[in-house]
Amino acid sequence: MDFGFSQKQKAFQQEVRAWIQENLPDGWKDLDPDYLSDTEEIIHMAVEFEKKMAARGWHAPHYPKKYGGMDASPEEQFIIRQEKYHCGAPSSHNDMMGVDFVGPTILVHGTEEQKDKYVNGLGRGELIFSIGYSEPNAGSDLASLQTRAVRDGDDYVINGVKTFQTNARHSDYCWLAVRTDTEAPKHKGITIFIVDMKSDGIETTPMNNVLGYPHFDETVFNDVRVPATEIVGGLNMGWPVLMTALSYERSIIHPVFYTRRLLEDLVAFAKETPWRDGVLSHNPAVRRKLAELAVENEGAALLGYRVMSLQMKGEIPTYQPAVSYLMVSQHGRHMASAGLDILGRYGQLMGASKRTPLKGRLSAFFLSSIPLGIGGGTFEIQRGIIAKLGLGMG
Question: How far apart, in whole angstroms, are the C-alpha atoms of residue 176 and residue 130?
Fold first, then answer.
């Protein structure tokens, strides 16, 4: 089986790469966006850049053309995502949460009206979604969520708190999981709503991440009224909808493209850095680490590619996303720790110091890699899914 690109696909890859490099916002590379990824300035630049990509059908290439996509093949989708992240292009995080998680789930479970409004808006880069799952007392055990929605006429009134919402304050809508039946078993009484973030009663508070930037928000819903028409997949049918959305979330391979870029930077660093009578790449331990990282990266990319292929055939993968997510996340963490080992003591630096290697990208990635294997389900959750659905262990 040939996993390489055809000549036509290689030409498309070059086209995408050239376009991205030519259309990066002025001064983008000078901002070191690899670790300043959530400042107001960078979020704005990222949104505008993604709108430009959307005009070419590249922001959501896997969407149907009528929703702003290009009916992309798995290979084309892979190429666009790879080039965007490999080039270090701006990302608002909406290309994952909104475009890759929410939009495809609406295509599976949503009404035609919801598809026309939300999938279309996402595909054209006009809407930003945040995701409201985690709560102060509900994380990996998501079915324990307590945010409540109660029927009142044609609306539902929502009260509760969501935590660790990525950039909720910048979003137009929230993909919100709430409890609508307190008497049902906890997996049976959940409903998914699409909530306008401009609604009365919503208050967001920024939460700084380990890098010192407000990547997350805590959102309080206080008597927020949401029309019943904003339910996705049916009342009390939220768990199957959640499983579809989480399947898409676990299918992400974006970190693989970013770590591939870091791997190339590390290889270049090893070839240029003096060591004894030669350069660091002559060190057997460094060579072994880099070779191991290269193998992991290739394997993670191929696993993600398999999941995308299933999705593009109209299938909803079961255990395959868990396999891919586990590999991608573990590889990301290994890349971060092994990379710092290779860079040495100065690898921990960030900022403008002349001694900071790779502009501090590895140090920043080491800190930001902590959530890998947490969001979308911990490593233990993924292994449980693989055992149950992949190995038939019930």
Answer: 9
Joined together, the tokens standing for residue 49 give 């850049």
List the domains of the chain with CATH numbers: 7-92 (1.10.540), 129-236 (2.40.110.10), 250-390 (1.20.140.10)
d(CA 66, CA 69): 7
- The helix/strand/coil state of 202 is strand
In DSSP notation, 100-142 reads IIIHHHHHHH--HHHIIIIIHHHHTT---EEEE--BTTBSSSG
What contacts 66, CB < 8 A, 6 or more positions away? 120
d(CA 21, CA 34): 16
Asked if 343 and 247 count as a contact pair (C-beta separation under 8 A), the reply is no
Residue where the block lists tokens 């819903």: 221
- In angstroms, what CA-CA distances link 243 with 119, 146, 317? 19, 18, 10
- Asked if 45 contacts 27 with a C-beta cutoff of 8 angstroms, the reply is no
Q: What crossing angle do the helices spanning 320-343 and 238-249 adopt, rounded to 10°?
A: 40
Q: How far apart are CA 145 and CA 133, in angstroms?
A: 8
Digit-coded pLDDT (tens) for 164-217: 988 898 899 999 999 999 999 988 999 999 999 999 999 999 987 777 777 789
For residue 197, give both structure tokens.
């973030």
pLDDT band at residue 3 under the 50/70/90 scheme: low
Quick check: 32 pLDDT over 80? no
Summarize pLDDT for 105-162 with one digit per residue, the tens.
999 999 999 999 999 999 999 999 999 999 998 888 888 999 999 999 999 999 999 9
Question: By the 8 A CB rule, do 242 and 188 touch?
Answer: no
Name the residue type at position 3: F
Using CA atoms, how far apart are residues 161 and 297, in angstroms rounded to an integer? 37
Residues taking part in catalysis: 249
Task: Give the pairing type, strands 173-179 and 129-132.
Answer: parallel
